[in-house]
Design goal:
The chain is an all-alpha fold and 97 residues long. Helix content is 62%, strand content 0%. The chain is elongated, with a radius of gyration of 18 Å.
Amino acid sequence: MPTRDQLTDERVRALIVELGKAGIIHEDEAGQLTATREFEEAAEVRQSTPNPPAVSRAAVSEQTQQEFQQARTDSDVQTQLDLLWHVVTGRDPSGGG
């Protein structure tokens, strides 16, 4: 039976792979990170890999798409801009994080 540390390690590696697939981190970085064991190694990987790719349609949630469509239907340009800002930057346009 695997130890608690082994299970945690397995979960972290699976999360790293999913982050790479989702475009949150660069796929090269995800692959290299799953091969690391020490924090210093991971920091070196991060410094040597490019930034994540541009936002893809797959990375935009269904809820966000629906909110955008509703804002368009309502001619709510500000909400449309806010949603676009959030998708492109990952930050809340109101400054809330």
